[in-house]
Amino acid sequence: MYEGVVQDLIDELGRLPGVGPKSAQRIAFHILQADPTDVRRLAHALTEVKAKVRFCVVCGNVAQDERCRVCQDPRRDPAVICVVEESKDVVAIERTREFRGRYHVLGGAISPIEGVGPDDLRIRELLGRLADGSVTELILATDPNLEGEATATYLARMVKPMGLKVTRLASGLPVGGDLEYADEVTLGRAFEGRRLLDV
Amino acid sequence: MSLFRDDGVVLRTQKLGEADRIITLLTRQHGRVRAVARGVRRTKSKFGARLEPFSHVDVQFFARGSELLGRGLPLCTQVETIAPHGGEIVGDYQRYTAGTAMLETAERFTDSEGVPAVQQYLLLVGALRTLAAGTHEPRLVLDAFLLRSLAVNGYAPSFDDCARCGLPGPNRFFSVASGGTVCGDCRPPGSVVPSPESLELLGALLAGDWATADACEPRFSREGSGMVAAYLQWHLERGLRSLRYVEK
């Protein structure tokens, strides 16, 4: 045990995900030895993030204002909406620089066994956005696992009567892998979604 | 340090650390087993989609002690698919919700880990195969599975003879606490009077008479489902989370 405040810092750091007691101690001593301005900047960033970050009223993504950066950007195509589970997925798709439409963050996936049903996700908000008919394509980009697939199936069924184009992200073989190690489900999917080589 | 090999159905997965998962399986020889699959969440994982719920797989486990369970969780080292039911089940939302309720039931009926539950295992494998094939209504497959799970665990309800005195049926009254249909003399307060068609349907589901079950009208199967849910809840003492989300 260390003196009061040092031990308090170690205890608080130890509550972060993936930080054990030894790592907490190492970080605490790093902070003790660091430049006071660096430490103040860290403390400022921590308090700011809690004070300023909210959720976008339109898409549910993390935002600093009422609307997130994507929803505010007039260059983004409002006719295409990409549905994702978490804000982290928005960042992953943004990194590809392939998508120019807007997003909708559901806040999870349907998992009855964990007690998460359709009403616990932001599905009603999504249907509200689709109601005025300005959206022409809905891209379902939920995780390619069982819960994500089930959520995509559910959404596809819900929006089918609205008559818009519903697409699902492709799944198949990872680039740079070996075919013989691919599992049956993934390889089957890759066969299903094979494309014409136009040379 | 020993290796074990077994067939099993994946019941549930939980995230563990950065890229791992704890997989709960119902296996043929060891009953319910929880094991760690290292790196399964990475896109280039050797397991791929093999360890998703509903998958029927052949697994090799690595355990630290001489027993499969005991000293910490075993590791999944190799997995081969026997039948990947996930794709067929998840493509239909009704099947998905019914299937999830089956997995949760199987997990709840196998309380202690490592104790073989062969009948429950065979029942689950058969039920998932039927559900994936889509030959019967998902709700009926679920009810048949629930009734037979109750039966193999010693809680078989009666849908014909009186559950108390054995008076040959058909009997009119149904009481969850008494164990099924009861005669006029034995009926406790709070017994219900379901339609004879619903009782006939439940009897057919328990016995595996699909011709009768498939021909049943939806209103009777709805009533039957309600009775099965009440009966299951009484014996499990706690309701199933996923049963609420099953589409009627």
From TrEMBL, chain A:
NCBIfam families: recR. Residues 79-174 form the Toprim domain. InterPro entries: DNA_Rcmb_RecR, Rcmb_RecR, Rcmb_RecR_Znf, TOPRIM_dom, TOPRIM_RecR. Belongs to the RecR family. A zinc finger (C4-type) spans 56-71. May play a role in DNA repair. It seems to be involved in an RecBC-independent recombinational process of DNA repair. It may act with RecF and RecO. One of its GO terms (biological process) is DNA repair. Pfam families: RecR_C (PF21175), RecR_HhH (PF21176), RecR_ZnF (PF02132), Toprim_4 (PF13662). Keywords: DNA damage, DNA recombination, DNA repair, Metal-binding, Zinc, Zinc-finger. One of its GO terms (molecular function) is zinc ion binding. This is Recombination protein RecR.
UniProtKB/TrEMBL annotation, chain B:
Pfam families: RecO_C (PF02565), RecO_N (PF11967). One of its GO terms (cellular component) is bacterial nucleoid. One of its GO terms (biological process) is double-strand break repair. InterPro entries: ARFGAP/RecO, DNA_rep/recomb_RecO_N, NA-bd_OB-fold, RecO, RecO_C. Residues 1-82 form the DNA replication/recombination mediator RecO N-terminal domain. Coiled coil: none annotated. Keywords: DNA damage, DNA recombination, DNA repair. It comes from the Bacteria. Involved in DNA repair and RecF pathway recombination. Belongs to the RecO family. This is DNA repair protein RecO.
